[in-house]
Structure formats: structure tokens, C-alpha cells
Amino acid sequence: MPDTVIMKLLSQVTKPARYLGTEWNAVHKDWEENPARMVFIYPDLYEVGMSHLGLAILYGAVNEQPGMLMERAFAPGPDMEALLRENRIPLFSLESHRPLADFDVIGFTLQYEMSYTTILNILDLAGIPVLATERGAGYPLIIGGGPGVANPEPVAPFFDCFLLGDGEEALPEFLNLVGQLKKEGLWDHRREVLDRIASLPGFYVPSFYDVTYNSDGTVAAVVPNRPGIPERVSKRVLPDLDEAYFPTRPIVPFLEVVHDRIMLEVMRGCTHGCRFCQAGAIYRPVRERDLAVLLRQAEELVRHTGHEEISLTSLSTADYSRVEELARALVAAYGDLGVSVSLPSLRVDAFSVRLADAVQQVRKSSLTFAPEAGSQRLRDVINKGVTEDDILTATAEAFRAGWQAIKLYFMLGLPTEGEEDLQGIAGLARRILYQGRELAPGKKPTVTVSVSSFVPKAWTAFQWEPQDPVAVLKEKQQLLRNHIKGPGLRFNWHDAEISYIEAVLARGDRRLAAAIMAAWRRGARLEGWSEYFSYACWERAFQETGLDPAFYANRQRREEEVFPWDHLDFGVSKTFLLRERRRARAGQLTADCRSGRCTGCGVCPGLGVDLRLKGGPEDHALADKV
After folding, report:
1. Which residues, in sequence order, are CB contacts of 473 under 8 Å at separation 6+?
2. Which GO terms describe its molecular function (predicted)?
3. Mean pLDDT score, 476-486
């Protein structure tokens, strides 16, 4: 794409820096010298996509390798989309401004079900047919990855293949194969290409599997339709993060993005076993990075980015074996430079004053906890593993340490939830506020309660459960609005209709692709943003395609039901999840296998991996030296 054309477009849009591609640390590799060419797309606006650690990791891992390149693209803003369509200009990559159709591979990360219509819109803007069956030789191969591939079936008709699991090693292997196929003159033979891709561990080619349905609409079976294809595709797992690639020269955006900071991944995986949590299941086992590795990475990241904040990133950062030593070492090393250390939402049973002190020395902010449920009974159902005393002890320590703003995250509509559980949310918020006023006299403490709606997800103990109907979720939101109000109390909630569509797609099958297409054709896109979401659009799409959304979102599944994703293998066994569902009904807790005996989830023996916990005495000595 000529720069003169690009510059003319940029003069007519808001935030033109979204489309420049010349940021600090951006990589511009020679097109001709790298025959395997991929563009990575985060299907949302630049500000969201550039906050994604997975993009930074894969961008660096691929571009470090000879013979291959990766560029970036994002969903354009509405103003840019209008200009592209009006001027018949195809969507282009950031680095070289080449049309997306020029690349061999287009990769989408599936982070959120509400991005699916945006994926179709991006393909259409690129002049690429959205259905895989309509793409032959001459079109890029479309691959998906990320947590959404835990159940990719609703979007399977749009993709050629999916990568399950960790991509740091798998994606360069895949692009090496792309280069080899081009060298052999086979790249235009799509069936041969897909055959070779299906032979790579962790790669799922949906067109090689047929789905049959029972008379009641449930899935009867998902089986290979050609010889040599595995009945189940297992995810890829990096056994040791210390040996894995991690970017220490990430791109520094020109404009403010959602997470404008260094993201230091301390570990991957979580074994607390919250029964609603998909990430806790599909990212097992826990693998920690060594303290020395993290300190070295932090030093390089500070030097190469100029960011003023280091975020210690993982699903449960406070559980990292040496989180206190790491936080104190980073504050000691970079506090005088004005670089702060932050942690994501803390598990309240892992909170300590020492950890709070370590991260507050440079810059204070609000502190966030996620009790998830308002009563002890319901917290036991979901296996949260914390008591109200744990919560109040943690918030008291926070107020004493100087915090004045506490944020609490809860879910509405959890299985077995009743009105007393909802009243418990309001009561807990008030008790914490009163506690803050007692412990911080003369101050004005605030407690913010944020509630989302429970969305049943694949690979969880609650994958059999129905979601509450939209009307019920709205009634529960109204009840909380009536009880969480007054000075010092704030209440935020998530759109119940968005959560409903998310629930439809989260456990859907391939038939839903028709509804996704219908919604997109009616204008659905950028639906992670409430201002662009239209529930009426989806209602019409379901009517047009004859699909019942309640069948997917509000239906109780039978224990023996075949799920659309049963031919995929993320390590956690269905037997274990069913056992956890029954324990939930009995209010029984399941211990974390990090500190207790094996819970029999199936990941370690099934995938040939194991927990990797770091932090021996040598790490203590290292932290003391920093």
C-alpha cells in the first residue's frame, strides 16, 4: 500500500497512531528474505490488542527466527472502516502496510467470544471470503489460537486450523512448515497443506472432523473423516518457562493503551480449582519462572521500554513462590527511578502486609480482591477456599497499610445461588466500608462492587450448568443496585444481554456459525465495547437462522452428554470435572495440588508434564543482593 494513500487516510481518522506501525521496538523484516509470512491479528481496537502479552510473545518469538516474519493488524475504528470501504482499500498490516491478503497466514487470537463477528468483518475488509470452504489457492491460510480454542466449534467453518495450547515453540514450527511447503511447490495445494499441518502436535484442522447430531439437537459425535487423523487433538505445553522465549524488547505504543506498562509473566497456570474458571483448567499445569530469570528480564524490559510500571502477571500472581522477594527486589532496584510494581487482583487468602508494603512504596492505588460470591456456602460451592474472616482480615490490613479504595469482584447467577447469597454481597461491602472508616479515621474510604454474570464455559466443573435467563440476571442486578448505595459505596455491573450471547457462543457447536454470520451481516462488530453491541441484531440473527439461543445458554446438560469440544484435549479429564461438579453440589472443597496431594485432574500424566515450582534458598540470596 503506497504511503501516500495511507497518509491520506490517517489525516481523516481519530487516533491515526493506531495504524502507523513505526513504534519503538517494532520489527520490520525484509519481505523477500523471509518466505513464510504471517500477520497476527487481535480482533479489537489497537488500544486493546497492544495490551495483550500473547501478541508480544509470539511477535518476538517468530521474528527472532530466520526465514519467517510476523506483522500486526487490528480491527479498524468505525471511521477507518468507513474510509476503507468507501475507497475500496483492503485492510493492511501495520509494519509494511501490505494488504492482509498478501500474507501466507493470517492468525487470530480468540480471547473473547464477543470478538467473533469482528473476525468476519476483518476478513471481509481484507477481501477474503469468510468461509473456509470458499477459500482456495491464492488466499491466506486462517489459523486461530488463544483461550477461545477451548471450544472453537462455533467459528470452525471460518478457520482452516487452530493451535491448541502454548505457541512459543509451536508457531515457529508451523511457519517452518509453511516455508517448506512453499519451497516444495505445494502451498497452493490446500488439502496437502492441511494434511501436513494436522500432523503437527497441537494443531486441529476442523474440516477433517465430521459432526453428527441427535434428534434432540445435541451432539452425537465428532469423528475424523479421513485416515491418519487423531480422534482427539492434545494441546501443546511448554514444560519449562525458563527455557521459553520471552520478549524483552516489546513494542512501545505511541498512544495510551489499556495496559500501558511492562508485563512480567511470573508463572503460567493455576491449580486453585475455582469451578467456574476456564483459564484455571486449560492453562494447567502451574509452571513458575525462576527468580533470577525474572530479575534479568525486568532489567532488560525497563531499559528497553522506558515504562514506569512493572505488572507481575499471571492468573494468580500472589501464589508465585517468591512473589514477596521479587516485589521487594524490583522496588529496591527501580523505585528511585520512579518505576512502580503492581499486581493484578489478589486472592484474599494470599494477601500479606509485607506484600502490600512491597508494592506500595512507589505509588499507591486501589486494591482489588475477588471474593466472587457473597456467602460462605456459595464460596464453597465454587471452591473459592476463602472465608469472610479471610476477606475482612485482608481488607483490614489494606486499610492499615494506607489504602483507601477497595474494589471487590463478584459473579451473579452462579449455580445454586439464592437471594441470601446476593444479600451477602451487599452486606460484605458495607462491613468493609465500616471497617475502613474505623481503621482510617478522617479519611474517606470507598468500596466499589463490580459484578459480572456467570457464563458457563467449556472445560469447567460448571460446563453442564444453565445460565440464568436475561430477565433473572437483570432482577438480581436491580436487587444489588437497591442495596449497594450511599456515601463510600459504588456499584458497577456488566450488561446481562452481552453475557447471554457470550454464553450461547461459549458452549456452542458449528451450527452457530450461521448465526454469527447473520449478526455480522446485520452490522455486528467490535462487540467487546458496549456502545457497539446490539442485542436486537443477535435476536434477528437467531430468528433468521432458526437457532434457539436458550438451547445453548439456558439448558441443563445431561452428565453423559457429548460436548462439541470433546474431541479436543486440554489435559483435564471429563471424569475429574464431573467429580468436581458433584463436590460443588455437596459444598465440598478440593485442595490446591501445589501444596497438597494430587487431585487427579489428569493433566500431568495425560500430557506428560508436571508442576514446576521455583524458589529455593539460592533465590532468597539473590533477592537479598539486589
Report:
1. 412, 413, 453, 496, 499, 500
2. catalytic activity; iron-sulfur cluster binding
3. 97
Strands (E), 295-441: 309-313, 340-342, 367-372, 405-412
State how far the Cα of 499 lies from the Cα of 538, in Å rounded to an integer. 13
Instruction: Please choose, from the candidates 100, 162, 160, 104, the residue with its C-alpha nearest in 3D space to the C-alpha of residue 133.
Output: 160
Mean pLDDT of the residues in the chain: 94
- Cell 506428560 -> residue: 608
User: What pLDDT shows up at residue 623?
Assistant: 38
Structural domains of the chain in order of their starting residue, each with its CATH number = 3-234 (3.40.50.2300), 241-507+563-607 (3.80.30.20)
| Nearest alpha-carbon partner for 56 in 202, 317, 208, 248 | 248
Which stretches within 368-491 are classed as H helix?
376-381, 388-400, 419-439, 470-483
Q: Give the model's pLDDT for residue 345.
A: 65
Q: Is the pLDDT of residue 622 over 60?
A: no
- CA–CA dist 347, 386 (Å, integer): 9
Does the pLDDT value for residue 354 go beyond 50?
Answer: yes
pLDDT, tens only, 400-446: 888 899 999 999 999 999 999 999 999 999 999 999 999 988 889 99
From first CA to last CA, the distance across the chain in angstroms is 49
- The DSSP symbol for 502 reads H
Paired residues of 233 in beta bridges: 568
Q: Hey, is 286 helix, strand or coil?
A: coil
pLDDT of 352 higher than 70: no
- Cβ-in-10-Å burial (0-12, 13-18, 19+) of 563 comes to buried
* The residue type at 409: Y
> Residue 619: what pLDDT?
40
Could you tell me which of 166, 156, 147 has the C-alpha nearest to residue 607?
166
User: 58-73 b/e with 16+ CB inside 10 Å = b?
Assistant: bbbbbbebebbbbbbb
Q: Helix, strand or coil for residue 41?
A: strand
